[in-house]
Amino acid sequence: MTTQRTAPFKKQLLAQRASLLAQLSSLRDNEGRVEASAEHFAPAQDSTAQVSTARELELTLDARESIELDMVDAALRRIEDGSYGLCIDCGAEIPAARLDAAPEASRCIACQEKTEKPQ
Q: Could you give the dihedral angle defined by the CA atoms of residues 37, 47, 53 and 65, in that order, rounded to the nearest 10 degrees?
């Protein structure tokens, strides 16, 4: 894929990366998510179950945001090395519509479905 074709995707990925970093930063506030959650959910009126559920949610969101950030960074590396838009499994070109919907996509739909299919 040419630089001209990847430029809009790179711009979108950089914006997505900045947004994810801002979300992670604001939630962590320069400390671990668990510690931030403990402080946030410390009020005595919350039940132990509520606090536990809220902490689990915070940890899950952190993990998901971190995975998404890794995917965005990998897509940016593929743009730089010239392999962006090609499936990492079969080498086929990933349709532009898929990249428009998910610019961090690293696989064509067929390979992604194989990856997600339970064994």
A: -20
Global pTM reads: 0.75
At 95, give phi and psi (nearest 5°): -55, 140
Q: How far apart are CA 49 and CA 45, in angstroms?
A: 12
Structural domain spans, the chain: 3-84
Classify burial at 3, counting beta carbons within 10 Å of its beta carbon; exposed 0-12, middle 13-18, buried 19 or more.
exposed
What are the tokens at 50?
């509520």
C-alpha span between 9 and 84 (Å, rounded): 10
Averaged over successive runs of 10 residues, the pLDDT of the chain (119 residues) comes to 88 95 75 55 64 72 87 97 96 95 96 89
Give me the residue label for tokens 């890794």: 70
